[in-house]
Amino acid sequence: MTGLRSAASRAAPSRARASGLIALIAAAALSLSACSEGPSGTTDSSAAVGASAGSAGSPAEDEASPEAGSAEDAGDADTDGEPEEMLSEQEIAQILLSESELPFTPDRHSTQTGLNFFQEQLSAQPEIYTESFGDGACTSAMDQVNAELVGEDPQGGVVQEYEHELEDRTESLYVWMLGLPDPQDSAAVWDGVVEACADQPLRGETDSVRVDAFESQGFEGIELHMDVHNGEGMVEVLGYSASTDYGRHLLMVSAANMDAHTFREVVELQAAKLATHAHQQTD
To answer: Composition bias, kind Acidic residues: at what positions (predicted)?
Structure first.
């Protein structure tokens, strides 16, 4: 896997220009303008770091260290200690990586609870890939993956959003967990996307996207290599989305403008924290 090969020499695409493609990086809905929109149920950590997110019933941010688990143990999290019942928002928040547990110090952090993000921002996105690259098996799979993962009856969840300002770009990271009516096989969904997009780079008038498989510590998903026109020239952007199933829940880690090493480290940390939680449930 490669990093942002030209990020240091060319400016990242503008938010208005890049939001279309990046908004549907797999199941992340990483609209680079999402944080500035201030959707309901969102708390900006610049105003309340460590406080409860949103209104009454929103989860408090968990500051526990993931050291009790290890990346090597994370692969067992998908079979041991999986909850049979639906987790509460507070329990979900305790599983997700907190601000202090990231391998970098974010410049912006917000939390969303409930279903708004999943129903209105994630699964209800327009057919961005088909509109940008035309009809085809790959564009259809990319446009449908959000709805397939979220399903028709999501039960509620928690989304942690982070932004990290660098000299040449802004890294965006989404870590979320969603409750579902029944357990699902998200790996099969990703396999379908990879199969549909294998050896078929998407090419439009100015933009192109290559889809590769991603796998680490029990998380499976895709890695997107995007060449995007920012109004002045072409820039290269990496996007990722990877998930794991946990009982009747889907745990997702997604990022845009982040280098491969940092994303993999985030996934390993999240997998270790999930493994720790699963182990605690068996005690």
So the answer is: 73-87
